[in-house]
Amino acid sequence: MPKPGSGEVLVRVQLAGICATDLELVRGYYAFTGVPDHEFEGEVLEAPGESDRVGQRVVGEINISCGKCSHCRAGRRTHYERRLVVGILDREGVFAEFVTMPLENLHAVPDSIPDEGAVFTEPLAAALEIQEQVQAHPSDHVLLIGAGRLGKLVARTLALTGCELVVVVRRETLKQLLTECNNRTISVEEVGENKFDLVVDTSGSPEGFAMAKRGVRSRGTIVLKGTYKGYVNINLSELVVEEITLVGSRCGPFPPALHLLENCLIDPAPIITDYYPLSEGISAFRRAEQPGVLKVLLRPATDIS
Amino acid sequence: MPKPGSGEVLVRVQLAGICATDLELVRGYYAFTGVPDHEFEGEVLEAPGESDRVGQRVVGEINISCGKCSHCRAGRRTHYERRLVVGILDREGVFAEFVTMPLENLHAVPDSIPDEGAVFTEPLAAALEIQEQVQAHPSDHVLLIGAGRLGKLVARTLALTGCELVVVVRRETLKQLLTECNNRTISVEEVGENKFDLVVDTSGSPEGFAMAKRGVRSRGTIVLKGTYKGYVNINLSELVVEEITLVGSRCGPFPPALHLLENCLIDPAPIITDYYPLSEGISAFRRAEQPGVLKVLLRPATDIS
C-alpha cells in the first residue's frame, strides 16, 4: 500500500487502459522499470488535509511538474524539463490496486460519466491537444492516418468541428468501426497528392509520415500524433518549397475532454475490446497486441472486492 | 530582344542580385537551363494595351501562376502546381538586359526607393513570409541561424517586432555587420538548450537544423528558411514529445516589403558587397561564392548605355 507524500492523495484504481505507449514500454523502447500505465479512473481513498476529496471519482494528469520554472509559469506544465511521467518516466504507473497522485493532477469526474467513459479522459485529452495547437476549420479537408486506439478518438474529436474527415485504414474491422461514425474511409492507395488542408498522422511510422507528406496540400499542416521509432529521413527542402507545417503533439487538456464526455459528444464505448482483472495483466497485454484489438481495460478493483 | 506575350510587358533590367539559389543553380542542384536569377529592379519599356505603365520602375514576383486553380483562388498563387518560376523553373531569368514579365507579377516602385534598395524587394518579401506564417511576439526570444544574404534581411525584419533577437554567426565580418543593427550575436557553441521561442534556420544545412532543434524550447517553432540539400535524418519523436512546430517558408508578399523600404525601416545598403556589369557576370558569380561576400549586384543597364 503506497503512502501519499506531501500534496498527494491515495487513489484506488477502478479502471486502467492499455495504450500503444504501454506496449512499446514492455518491448523496451523506453528506459522505464516499475509499474506501467498512465490511463486510469479511480476513487480517492485518503487525502491528507483535503478530506472533502475522499470518495471522489477522479482521473489524473500524467505529467508531474514543479509549478515554478519558466515552462510551468508560462502554462506549459507538461513540458517541465525534469518532469516525472506516471508509468513512463521515473514514476510508478497505475496498473495497480492503489496509486498515489499529486492532488493538483487530479480532476473530479462528473457523476454522469460512467467509469468506462472516464478512463478515456487521458487519451481523449491527447486527441484534443491537436486542436489546442492547430485550428481545424469547419471547411477543411482533413486526412487521418491510423485508426487505432488513439486514432479513433482523434477521428471523433475532429468530426466535431464539422470538417470533411477522411480516414486511411488497412484493417476491415477498424474500417467498420469508423464508418459507424460517418467518417469516409479510404485505402492507403487512395491517398492522393496535395489534397488535404490538415493531416494527422497517428501511425508513428515512416510509412505513415510519407503518406502524410503525400496527402497534404501546399501550405497545409501535418500533425505528428504518435511516437516514431528511431530517425526518419526527411526531405526538408520539400517542406520549404511547399511551405508545409509540421506540429508535434503530445499530452492535452483534461477539462475539455471531461466536458465532451459529460455532454455525450464523444462515446468511447465502441472502442473497448475487452476487460481483464489486474491478476491477468500479462494476458491483457498479449490481447492488446493482437491485430485489430482496440482498447483493453484492466479492472484492479475487481481483484480486491 | 524578347517579345512580350499576352498579358506581359517588356522590362529593361536595371539591377539584378545574385542569391544563394543562383549559386546552387549553377552548381547543378536544380534541373534548370537558361538565363538564371530572379531578383531584379527595372523599367517598363513596352506594355501592350497598358501604355500608362511604360517608364514605370518595377519589381516582379517570380512565381507565374494560372489564377484559376484551387490554390490560386485560395490566395496561394505561389503554390500553383504547374507554376513557372523566373530563373528557377521553366522560365528565363533576369540576368539579361531585357526580360518579359506578366503584368500581374509587377509592382510599381515608389520614387523614394533607390534602385539599390528596390532590387532587394524579392528577398525582403521572402524574409517577411516568416511573419505571414508565424507570429513573432514582441516578448519572444528568437534565434536566427545564418547571417548570410537572406539571414541579414531576416534579422532586420524580425528586429522590427521588438523581439529579443540573437544571431548565430561564424565569420567575424558578418558578425560586425550584425552588431551594427544592435542584434546580439553568439557563437555556435553558445547555442544553449531549450531557450528560444522561435528559431529561424537560414543555413539550409543539417548542422543548422540540429542547432535549431537544440536551441528551440518545448512548444517552440522552427522556421525552415533555406533550401536543404538532400535528406536530413530527423528524430520525429523528439518533435512529438517536445511539441515542436516546423514551418517551411519560401516566397513572400511584395507590398509590405515595398512599404518597409519606402518608410526607410529596412536599409539593405550595408548588405551590398559589390557591383558588376552583366558582361562580367561570370566574375560576379565567382565573387558571390567567396566566403564573407554578401550581395553582389549586376547592372545590365550599364552594358547598354
Radius of gyration of chain A: 19 Å
Low-confidence stretches of chain A: none
Strands of chain A, count: 17
Task: Describe the oligomeric state of these chains in a short phrase.
Answer: homodimer
**What is the succession of H and E elements of chain A?**
EHEEEHEEEEHHEHEHEEHEEHEHEHEH
Describe, in plain words, how this protein is organized in 3D.
The structure is a homodimer of 305-residue chains. Chain A has 305 residues and is an alpha/beta fold. Chain A is 29% helix and 28% strand. In chain A, the strands form three sheets. In chain A, strands 1, 2, 3, 7, 8, 16 and 17 form a seven-stranded mixed β-sheet that branches. Chain A has a six-stranded parallel β-sheet with strand order 11-10-9-12-13-15, with helices on both faces. Chain A is globular. At the A-B interface, strand 13, strand 14, helix 8 and strand 15 of A face strand 13, strand 14, helix 8 and strand 15 of B.
Brief characterization of the structure:
The structure is a homodimer of 305-residue chains. The first copy, chain A, is of the alpha/beta class and 305 residues long.
Tags for this model:
6-stranded parallel sheet; about 300 residues; 7-stranded mixed sheet; about 30% strand; homodimer
Q: Secondary-structure map with pairings?
A:
Two copies of one chain form a homodimer.
Chain A: E1 8-18, H1 20-26, E2 39-46, E3 57-60, E4 63-64, H2 70-73, E5 84-86, E6 90-91, E7 98-102, E8 106-108, H3 115-118, H4 121-133, E9 141-145, H5 149-159, E10 164-168, H6 172-180, E11 184-186, E12 196-201, H7 206-215, E13 216-224, E14 232-234, H8 236-241, E15 245-248, H9 254-262, E16 272-277, H10 281-289, E17 295-299, H11 300-304
Parallel strand pairs in A: 5-6, 9-10, 9-12, 10-11, 12-13, 13-15, 16-17
Antiparallel strand pairs in A: 1-2, 1-7, 1-17, 2-3, 3-8, 4-5
Helix pairs in contact in A: 4-5, 4-9
